[in-house]
Protein: Trichome birefringence-like N-terminal domain-containing protein
Amino acid sequence: MKRVKGRAPLSVVVAIIGGLALAGIIFTEDLRSLTEIMEKKKGKEKEQKRTTSLHAGTRAMLTRPGETKVMPPPQQQPAAAAKTAFDPSRCSVTEGYWAYNRSRKLLYTDQTCPFIDRQDSCQRNGRPDSDYLYWDWHLDDCSLPRFDPTAVLEKLRGKRMMFVGDSLQMGQWLSFVCLVNSAVHYTARSMERSTTLSVFTATEYNATIEFYWAPYLVEANSDRNIRLGADGRVLHVDAVELHAKHWKGVDILVFDSYVWWMTGSRIKTVWGSFGDDGYEELDAWVAFRLGLKTWANWVDANIDPNATRVFFMSISTTHMRSEDWGREGGIRCYNETWPITRKGYWGSGADRRMMEVMSDVLGRMRVPVTLLNVTQLTEHRVDAHVSVYTETGGELLTDAQRADPQTYTDCIHWCVPGVPDTWNQILYAHL
Structure:
């Protein structure tokens, strides 16, 4: 047979086509295998990422006692990062989360500490639940030390410590006293109470822990009659000496500005004597700046930072709008028994502008003042207010009054023991 010039034999063509087909099959299989490997790898990374995210999120989505905790298998849990020891210069007390710890040992109760006011004695007043007592505030990156009453007493040996402020600051003072009292024999202590100055003495340590009543820090016509009401209150925003003369010679001063500045959007203010006829209504944050600057000027002029340490507590939040935390139809903090666990939750109970004023004035002072910012951690604790387990007008709420939570629920003050213990834990960490 005569060969056609330029054409390959049929057998060669068939061989080439078969080879190409085989190579294509091999390439396809390799590509499929490679794709499966990549898909498996992506799946593993996705699962690992999901597991890590779940683990980190468990801090914000805590489980109530009795509920089943769904945790990833041990081998999937990432290793917990080691936390550094608390350093006030770099550890933020606002970055953290509440963790339930039923095994925590309470240093006192409102039955074992005889000094707690009836206004704050929730358990003694009949509150039926107690979970609110067993929450610890954990910092994200640092370890917050436990309150050590014996160590505190040693630091206070031969010294005076004074809390200055309103009824919320009084609750913190009582918490501090009860924490310390847990390490003091009953024969080695004394307590003197008055409407203006109250003094707890640990005689063995020659130490006093005092409370001075000055709800606005500056002078006000309602200092002795806090029930005067927001409409009747007038602040002397440029006068503080009447109160401040009692602060001299104190080794540790702890001031507050909790909710008294937030009793309304406008505050009546006066310069000069209270006997003057006229007063001026100012925006609350303007009055706050004026009053706080008056206080700051006194501190700068009268406090020796080598002899006295000064602390200032940030605003304690209220929980007046149950809609803030998704409880539609709720009555403020009434019947709330669990914290708001959403990370970074911020409701309507703290005024950011007031906090900015506070930070600005403190930041301009000559005398160093340590701001203890407890606002963020307090935001979450809707469960820990006195609610209806308190008193009004000096009398415990009756059963009929408790049955009317719309009128009588107190979502400003805190049960003691409770959240004020955590404030004092942070104060202790700074001492």
Remarks:
- The first strand starts at residue 84 and ends at 85.
- The mean pLDDT is 83.
- Residues 106-430 form one domain.
- The chain has one domain: 106-430.
